[in-house]
Every structure is written in structure tokens, then in C-alpha cells.
Amino acid sequence: DPPLKPVIAQTLGAGRRGTLDGGRVHWNVSPYFSRVSNDILTIFSGGSSHGYFANVPKTVRKGLDIGVGGQFGKLEWQTNIGIVDATYGAPFEEQSADNSSAGENGAIKVRAGNRMPGIPRRMFTLAAEYQVTDRWSFGGNLRAWSSQYATGDENNRDVHGPIGGYALLDLDLHWQTTRRLSLFAQVQNVFDRHYFVGGQLSDNVFDTSGRLIDTSGPRTSTLFVAPGAPRGWFVGMSYRFGDREDD
């Protein structure tokens, strides 16, 4: 392992919360700023499994978290918005031979202000639950993320560009059969969206004509992505011990 300098983080954060409409609506706001010196970056030097650690001169994360929620009659809801600008704070060079903008020696030049891979700039959630009766409730959860860059594209210049954002909808149904026992049914990714949760630039050894794998010949630089889960159906139950059974 190469010698690494100690990581030093300087963080400034604040928060504010309150209520509106006689307490039926609550809100919170939390801005923050973080500057990290000698942040550690993984440098992939041989496909997706070989690499080493190296210090990055400076990284910066600044953002804002906002939450608003409340209850109106039988409807309870909550929404959260996260905005984060995660960038490199100083220029440096790194090895990333599978980046289309790499030089002859396989190095790319990262500039101050380039976005850090794997961190979407915007995140959004909206959850709601409606109490149909004392025993039945129906709810939903909407989650959304904006685009992100793949690992190996620290300079944000690879020809593949950023990995697209996505939004998912989950629905659930609850039945409180007794004070202790409850049953539920849930559908995740209702619309069966096809999406990717992350990615990495690497070389492809599976594209040689007539052969399954060719590790000796030339390899093709490409973007490998991690697919998200498809639509899923779940049913279950929960039982709470220790309470008196009055039903």
C-alpha cells in the first residue's frame, strides 16, 4: 500500500425547525459545509477488482436538507429534499485508462469543481399514509435521485456522460388485526422502472467474437452499471410481545 496522509475534515452545519398551522405542519432546514483535506480515493488500475488508495488534495461537500410534513385528518405525510454539491476542491491527476479523455499514459486531469462520482446532486422523498379505518391503512412512498457520474470519470469528461437519474414508487397496505398482530402487503417499484444505482469505467473482456472471454487480446473500455431491483411483491406480518391483549 502507498503511504497515505491523514484525512482532516472541517465541517460547519446549522439547523432550524418549527411548526405551522397550529402545529399540524412541521418543518426543518439544515445547511452544511464540509471541506476534507487529503481525502482518500480508490484508483482502479486493473479492471473492476484491482486498485490502490491515494490521497486527493481537497474535496468539498456543501448542501441543504429540507423536510416538511404533517397530518390532516386521517392523512399523514412527509417530504424531504436533499441538495448536495460534492466536488473536488483542487486539481490533480489520476490513472483512469478506461476514461475516453485519458492521455496516452492513461492519466486524466481532474479540475477543481468537477463533481465526485457516485453522489447524486438532488434527492427527493415523499411518503404518505391514509388511515382508512382504525384497522386499515394505505400508503405510498416516492423516491427520486438525479444523475451521477461513474467511478473513473472523476474529471466528468468521459464519452458515456453521467448515469441518468430515476424515480421509484412503492405502495403498501396494512391491516391491524389485533393490538399485537398486524399484516401488510407491499409493492416496490410499482411501474417496474429500469434504472442504475451506480457505475464504473472498466475494460470489457466479453466482447471478443467467437470466444466467451479473451483476457489476452485487446480490451474495450466501457461503462459497467449496477442495475436496480425490479418490481417486487411482499407480504408479511408483525407481532408485538408484552402488551395486554384486549381484542
Distance between the termini: 63 Å
How many beta-strand segments?
Answer: 14
Show unreliable segments. Answer: none
Task: Kindly provide the radius of gyration, computed on alpha-carbon positions and rounded to a whole number of angstroms.
Answer: 24 Å
Order of helices and strands: EEEEEEEEEEEEEE
Largest sheet composition: 10 strands, antiparallel
Give a structural overview.
There is one protein chain. The protein has 247 residues and is mostly beta strands. It has strands at 8-13, 16-20, 25-44, 51-72, 75-88, 92-95, 107-110, 122-131, 136-145, 166-176, 181-188, 196-204, 220-227, 232-239. Strands 1, 2, 3, 4, 5, 8, 9, 10, 11 and 14 form a 10-stranded antiparallel beta sheet that branches. It is globular and about 70 Å long. The mean pLDDT is 89.
Secondary structure elements and pairings:
Layout: E1 8-13, E2 16-20, E3 25-44, E4 51-72, E5 75-88, E6 92-95, E7 107-110, E8 122-131, E9 136-145, E10 166-176, E11 181-188, E12 196-204, E13 220-227, E14 232-239
Antiparallel strand pairs: 1-3, 2-3, 3-4, 4-5, 5-8, 6-7, 8-9, 9-10, 10-11, 11-14, 12-13
